[in-house]
Design goal:
The chain is an alpha/beta fold. The protein has 7 helices and 16 strands. It has 2 domains: 179 residues, FAD/NAD(P)-binding domain, CATH 3.50.50; 138 residues, D-Amino Acid Oxidase, Chain A, domain 2 (2-Layer Sandwich). A hairpin with a 6-residue loop joins strand 15 and strand 16.
């Protein structure tokens, strides 16, 4: 039985910790602050697939993760006794007639690459659900692969599952690599990208700020909506998550008036949300690697230390597959890191078409 330390109690670190505990090993998660203190403590939780045309390795890895998600989250719920708020409720988008040729190519991509496990389709029949946006030209694009997960419920559920398997979670303890024996997995989000860059003497990535909200509106089984660049996600707990802004430069890490614009746009798109109480306004800093892809591998120059980072905008969707890949690497020295996700001595691996 190995004993592994994971640094960072965000979705990446907790998922890796759970995967190691699930395989029968001892895990200790060390977190500077609290569970979900970084970008994993928000309100949106859309597990939405990349567009299935122009297929690439990143899309394949994400597909595997989305298809594994139900088993992954069911097991977490069963072992820890807490609901992560996962359900594959699908997604609806209002589209225009001008979009149709491009969308038909996308649907062909879904038919080819989603292995019959999920479907994307166009419809002129208004889909059911209280949040479905108006479509002036009467077309909607649907899929049944998209799922939702409550970020905060998922963090609590993973922590409970790790503890139920005999793992430890230590909160309020910042860690430094020189003071930490291996094996150790650094899942430290945006601050971790900065720390790694400082250690390696080159830029590894940056933090990208995002703001989101939670509104009181119960539609737990309704499909989520993607419209005007916004994710509008009904959750299990009677809330609807709305997001997000994407800010490469920012003066502070708190919410500001840009979030009010997001809320107003969401209400305009989904009139049922008009008058729904805003329960929470939230901001977080996403970890974006230079490649924009997840970043995994051994920390160059620090044997026994590993990096799991770069979740950027899809960290929740990618968590099941990335947890398995890093656990294989750390526990079994089995390297199945997809090309383009690998942390190397010399730089990033740009992936096209994402
Ligand atoms: C507004 C917004 C909306 C989003 N919506 C979605 C979405 O709908 N779907 C989706 O899949 N993704 C979404 N994302 C992206 C997702 O939130 C991130 O990809 C994910 O949270 C990254 O998780 P992480 O565990 O790598 O990092 P983080 O959650 O940032 O966790 C890192 C943790 O490490 C801790 N830490 C840092 N340094 C140290 C240290 N030295 N010692 C100990 N602990 C340390 C931090 O306190 C933090 O808790 C969204 C992000 C934002 C901001």
């Amino acid at each position: 039985m190995a004993s592994v330390t994971v640094i960072g109690a965000g979705i990446a670190g907790l998922s890796a910790g759970w995967e190691i505990a699930r395989r029968g090993h001892h895990v200790r998660v060390i977190e500077a602050d609290r569970i979900g203190a970084g970008s994993s403590g928000g309100t949106v939780g859309a597990l939405a697939p990349h567009a299935p045309d122009s297929w690439n390795i990143k899309k394949q890895a994400q597909l595997e993760s989305l298809l594994n998600a139900r088993t992954f989250w069911d097991q977490v719920a069963q072992v820890g006794g807490r609901d992560p708020g996962y359900a594959r409720t699908g997604r609806v988008q209002a589209v225009t007639a001008a979009d149709l040729p491009r969308l038909r190519a996308r649907i062909e991509g879904a038919d080819r690459h989603w292995q019959g496990a999920a479907r994307m389709w166009l419809t002129q029949t208004r889909p059911e659900g209280p949040l479905v946006p108006e479509s002036p030209e009467g077309w909607w694009l649907m899929d049944d692969l998209t799922a939702r997960l409550s970020p905060r419920m998922a963090g609590a559920a993973l922590a409970a599952a790790i503890t139920a398997k005999g793992g430890e979670i230590v909160l309020g303890q910042p860690a430094r690599p020189d003071a930490m024996p291996g094996p150790a997995i650094w899942a430290t989000g945006a601050p971790g990208l900065a720390m790694l860059g400082e250690d390696l003497g080159r830029k590894i990535g940056q933090g990208v700020k995002g703001q989101s909200a939670a509104l009181r509106f119960a539609a737990p089984d309704a499909p989520q909506v993607y419209a005007d660049g916004l994710h509008i996600v009904p959750h299990a707990d009677g809330t609807v998550g709305i997001g997000s802004t994407s800010e490469n430069s920012f003066e502070h890490e708190d919410v500001d008036e840009q979030l009010e614009d997001v809320i107003a746009r969401a209400r305009a798109l989904c009139p049922a949300l008009d008058g729904a109480e805003v329960l929470d306004r939230w901001a977080g800093i996403r970890p974006r690697a230079r490649s924009r892809a997840p970043l995994l591998g051994e920390w160059p120059g620090r044997p026994g230390h590993f990096v799991l980072n770069g979740g950027f905008k899809i960290g929740f969707g990618m968590a099941p597959v990335l947890a398995g890949i890093i656990a294989d690497l750390v526990l079994d020295r089995r390297d199945r890191i997809p090309e383009g996700f690998r942390l190397q001595g010399s730089g990033d691996n740009p992936i096209s078409g994402t």
